[in-house]
């Protein structure tokens, strides 16, 4: 008897149906084991401080453990690259920031991945600003004093950030360009080392996220000069925004944090993660944790792909305008 074979369109339809059934089954079973959430910075930093309460709640929603793995270096790019090349099964995810998802690739053309092309945006988690800090040894307390000091001693002082091409690197270069001053950039792997060296006077100035800066500010070892967001942070209501200084009118750099996945993760799993993210962001304790960090939990209707496209254009203009030196 001649064996039955599907040919042409019938065979293609059967293959598509089989693939659909396989993906659906994978989504129903997902997650069947713990998920790793990569953070491209050291423990205690801005992104890490968002990732840990988020991972706990996301794990409860997905009924599995979500483990935070800190892969620090290159302004968050090493962690993002690890997710880009990870097995696309939904078990390795990234809590990424606008630094490694947008800015580092623009600042470093040799970066081996593109944050928009090589990762799938699942959704926004929160927004958070930064703060410009001074070592107590410098004796600067206000934006005006800071700028006057730089103009009096051009090229004498350093400012530290969490990495080359990071949001705060861009923030520092824009500040330098807008005020016509000279500062030398010093890149750190994370907030902890940066804060300790700032407290000890190894570097004179630095940018940190509002959350990791809190312990250094409250202990009095550093001086908050101004926040980088357009308006004052609810975490530091007495600290002015840089935009309040006349020469820096309109200055506004804030961070955002998004859940991302490797590019070819099956769509049913992406849909499961998007639903879980939405549910997690409705958790009152998580929202309070994000607010306590000086951030703003993401809203349901925020369009992450559009935000990434807009930020790409914005950072590209910033980097071209300031002629950002990617080697410092």
- Poorly predicted segments: 1-6, 17-22
Helix content: 40-55%
Q: Assign the CATH architecture of the largest domain.
A: 3-Layer(aba) Sandwich
CATH homologous superfamily of the largest domain?
A: Bordetella uptake gene, domain 1
How many strand units?
Answer: 11
Assigned CATH class of the largest domain: Alpha Beta
Q: Sum up the overall morphology in one term.
A: globular
Number of domains: 2
What is the straight-line distance between the termini? Answer: 75 Å
H/E topology pattern: HEHEHEHEEHEHEHEHEEHHEH
Please give the count of helices: 11
Gyration radius over CA: 22 Å
Strand content: 15-25%
Structural class category: alpha/beta
Reported by name, the CATH topology of the largest domain is D-Maltodextrin-Binding Protein, domain 2
- Largest beta sheet, briefly? 6 strands, mixed
Strand order of the largest sheet: 2-1-3-10-4-11
Average pLDDT for all residues: 89
Characterization of the model:
The protein is α/β, with parallel strands linked by helices and 328 residues long. The chain folds into two domains: 10-127 and 255-322, D-Maltodextrin-Binding Protein, domain 2; 130-248, Periplasmic binding protein-like II (D-Maltodextrin-Binding Protein, domain 2), CATH 3.40.190. The chain is built from eleven helices and eleven strands. The strands form two sheets. The protein has a six-stranded mixed β-sheet with strand order 2-1-3-10-4-11, with helices on both faces. Helix 6 (167-179) links the parallel strand 6 (158-161) and strand 7. Helix 1 packs parallel to helix 9 and helix 6 (167-179) crosses helix 11.
